């Protein structure tokens, strides 16, 4: 494993995203007990946010490894969020994969916190020096991250109800006004069904388990309700 990660010089235009930041503190054996600030630098082709650590002038030391430059972005091929360290060239062409999270929420535009899904340590690169997967006891990931399985910023249940719950085949939804569509996610945060709004759902094709129903209104507000498929 190459033990030097160097800082990438970010184009001046990235200040446009300055308010969209993530704070990370973890993997102390490699990166010491210090905060790293990620700033959104753009979005990918599938509209997922991209974050790179700042400052970017080499001022932040990194546990005897030189200076650290990190990146969090969505890997479309692997269908997961990745925490990357630059390989030393300042371009992230061949970065080191430090952590990955494929269970947080594939539909969210920003990465999950350390309590959503599992940020898995890539021991092939870290040689186990990070002490295992990220948790809320060995790390901090805060700021522009989603902290629920759906990554919603606002949940409004109102008087919406659904029954029966648990459900075998058909479910009825009541108390909904101005709804435009429905989405159903499994317990891993994966979208399994998407359709125009209807008050009677045929759920017979779903496997047994816990699901989250997301009701999307015409003004883009959302309501999330959990149900169990028998």
From TrEMBL:
Alphabetized Pfam families for the sequence: Por_Secre_tail
Protein's name in the database: T9SS type A sorting domain-containing protein
Keywords, sorted A to Z: Signal
InterPro entries assigned to the protein according to its UniProt record, in alphabetical order: Secre_tail (IPR026444)
All copies of domain Secretion system C-terminal sorting, residue ranges: 162-227
Signal peptide: 1-18
NCBIfam families in the record: Por_Secre_tail
Keyword presence, Chaperone: no
């Amino acid at each position: 494993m190459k033990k030097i990660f160097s800082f990438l010089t970010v184009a001046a235009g990235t200040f446009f995203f300055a308010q969209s930041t993530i704070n990370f503190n973890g993997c102390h054996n490699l990166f010491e007990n210090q905060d790293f600030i990620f700033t959104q630098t753009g979005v990918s082709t599938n509209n997922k946010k991209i974050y790179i650590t700042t400052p970017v002038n080499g001022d932040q030391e990194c546990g005897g490894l030189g200076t650290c430059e990190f990146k969090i972005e969505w890997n479309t091929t692997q269908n997961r969020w990745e925490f990357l360290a630059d390989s030393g060239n300042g371009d992230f062409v061949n970065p080191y994969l430090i952590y990955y999270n494929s269970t947080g929420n594939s539909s969210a535009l920003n990465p999950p916190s350390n309590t959503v899904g599992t940020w898995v340590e890539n021991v092939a690169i870290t040689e186990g020096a990070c002490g295992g997967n990220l948790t809320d006891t060995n790390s901090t990931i805060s700021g522009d991250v989603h902290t629920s399985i759906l990554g919603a910023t606002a949940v409004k249940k109102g008087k919406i109800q659904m029954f029966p719950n648990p459900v075998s085949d058909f479910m009825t939804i009541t108390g909904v006004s101005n709804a435009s569509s429905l989405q159903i996610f499994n317990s891993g945060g994966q979208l399994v069904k998407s359709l125009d709004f209807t008050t009677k759902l045929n759920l017979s094709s779903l496997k047994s388990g816990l699901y989250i129903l997301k009701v999307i209104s015409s003004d883009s507000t959302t309501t999330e309700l959990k149900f169990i498929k028998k």
